[in-house]
Amino acid sequence: MPTPVLRGETVRGEGKVSGEVIHITHPDRIVEIEEGQIVFTQDLGGAYDTYPEVMGAVAIICTGDVRTLSEDGTIPIVREAKPIDDDVKDLLVEPEIPEDAPCHGEEHEHLMPPEGSEVEVDLDKGIVYLLE
User: Is 53 buried (19+), middle (13-18) or exposed (0-12) by CB count in 10 A?
Assistant: First the structure.
């Protein structure tokens, strides 16, 4: 049964999407995105949503802020995705964020479902469900 783990604000998209989790916490990892994956990142800007390597992603879930988006982008995006409550934190992980990774705004936890896990995102509600 799907477990709701994160809630954020949908910036773009509607309906439900699902896919495999990949953590992109540094621009160097963008080339690792495969079609059908849902990208979890700590920070989003610089028209990242239109990079050719990102275009195959199902959605982008940002645990921090979304600073800039391309008007031509079509990938669904959720921002400020935070744990729904303390009970789900043991299902989430803090990704490894390199020291030189860009990070804007306040420092805070960046909890995400583990890489390789399957999630469903209800874009209408801004809720990420961990599929078991």
Answer: middle
Neighbours of 12 (CB within 10 A): 17
Contact (Cβ atoms closer than 8 angstroms) between residue 33 and residue 22: yes
User: Residue 101: its pLDDT value, please?
Assistant: 65
Q: What is the dihedral of CA 19, 40, 24, 32, to 10 degrees?
A: 10
Phi first, then psi, for residue 60 (nearest 5°) are -125, 125
Largest interatomic CA distance in the chain: 38
Per-residue pLDDT reduced to its tens digit, 51-76:
878 888 999 999 988 877 888 888 99
Which residues make Cβ contacts (< 8 Å) with residue 1, sequence separation at least 6? Answer: 132
